[in-house]
Amino acid sequence: SAVEFNNGLGYGWSHTLCHSLTFTEDHHIIWQNHENNLITFSEPTESVPAIHNLLSEAAIYLGHEPNQYLVSSESGIYHFVRETAESKQGKLLAISDKYGHRHNVIYDSDGKL
Fold first, then answer.
1. Is 88 within 8 Å of 101 (Cβ atoms)?
2. Mean pLDDT, contiguous 10-residue spans, the chain (113 residues)
3. Cα separation values, 85 from 12, 23, 68, 74, Å
4. Predicted local confidence at residue 5, as pLDDT
5. 3-state secondary structure of 72
6. Do the beta carbons of residue 28 and residue 43 sit within 8 Å?
């Protein structure tokens, strides 16, 4: 439930930029979207660069840059970066749509939007 998560506005609150990736030790990625839904993917690799989750109608892809991941869903494409290969979290960088519009996300020195 949403009350378990604090996305910067307090427990139970969310906003449209509350997206994150969590990398697990068993090579899965959990995408938490702005509705606090948790969607699990196998981690994409160079040999399998795209992973689809048919139940959620979403997919995750390797990006063109190192440690970049793209999550595609009916509401858009979410661009994430994993700071290092050992990082457990992926941070939202941008949201784009099928028309090529893109909104970049900027963080302050404390890592807040």
1. no
2. 56 74 97 91 96 95 96 95 92 94 90 76
3. 30, 10, 10, 28
4. 57
5. strand
6. yes
Q: What angle do CA 39, 42, 48 make, to 5 degrees?
A: 130
Instruction: Please tell me the distance from the alpha carbon of residue 84 to that of residue 81, in angstroms, as a whole number.
Output: 9
106 alpha-carbon distance from chain centroid: 15
- In DSSP terms, which residues pair with 82 in a beta bridge? 90
Instruction: Please identify which residue in the block is written with the tokens 């959620």.
Output: 56
C-beta of residue 92 within 8 angstroms of C-beta of residue 20:
yes
Residue in this structure with the two tokens 């290969």, named with its chain if needed: 85
Per domain, the residue ranges of the chain are 2-104
* Residue at token pair 């020195």: 109
Model pTM? Answer: 0.86
